[in-house]
Amino acid sequence: MILRTLICPKDDVLPLLENSTKTRVNKDVLRRKNVLSLVSGLSISHDELSILEQIYNESRLNATTESQYQVVWIPVVDRSVIMWTEALQNRYESLQVTMPWYSVYTPRQNDRAVIRFIKEVWHFQNKPILVVLDPQGKDVSPNAFHMMWIWGSIAFPFTSSREEALWKAETWRLELLVDGIDPTTLNWVKEGKFIYLQLNRQHGSP
Asked: What does the pLDDT look like over 94-112, one tens digit per residue?
């Protein structure tokens, strides 16, 4: 019910675009699936998309996992604040073409009630979030991005309870911070070297 309202507020028969084939499809393609709702503005970066894309593509190689979850991009453009222009349409299309998953056919479908729900219930504040809905449409994780960054597909079905279980089984290690980012540091860990971490706080952050 939640997802249907978000992606199809005006009862559009084909509200989604299957980006891999560039064809419009019915919302029923998400029925009885775990759905990862990628909610973002049009300023989402390539880096933010790359990890999700990598994990998504890996899951497509596993027939069991592929059949269990889908990703749908829900772009948020508040038309009461921002006028939809050709430049925004071009930006939207340039992002959409890079995504292998489903997306809302056009963000112009999002009415004020949808925007308000996303901001007030899902606490969207311009930074991309990945809200997980189970096959019954229940919200089971407010943001699975960090879970996917740390554990990848192992975190499936990406629920808050699954994340809690993974943390309980996890031993804190440096690899959690640098895995896949800095192979040199990983070699230092294997060699048993002492490593000092310096954490820098961005200007203006608490």
From this structure: 999 899 999 988 776 567 8
**Per-residue tokens: 26:** 């019915």
Classify the C-alpha dihedral 104-105-106-110 as positive or negative: negative
Rounded to 5°, angle at Cα 75 from 61 and 40: 80
Asked whether the whole model's pTM tops 0.85, one would answer no
- In order of 51, 53, 167, the CA distances from 155 in angstroms are 14, 15, 11
Distance CA 144, CA 126 (A): 16
Q: Return d(Cα 25, Cα 102) in angstroms, integer.
A: 9
- With a CB cutoff of 8 Å and minimum separation 6, the contacts of 149 are 51
- What are residue 132's phi and psi, to 5 degrees? -105, 130
C-alpha distance from residue 71 to each of 59, 81, 119, 130 (Å): 11, 27, 20, 9
Q: Residue range 86-92: average pLDDT?
A: 90
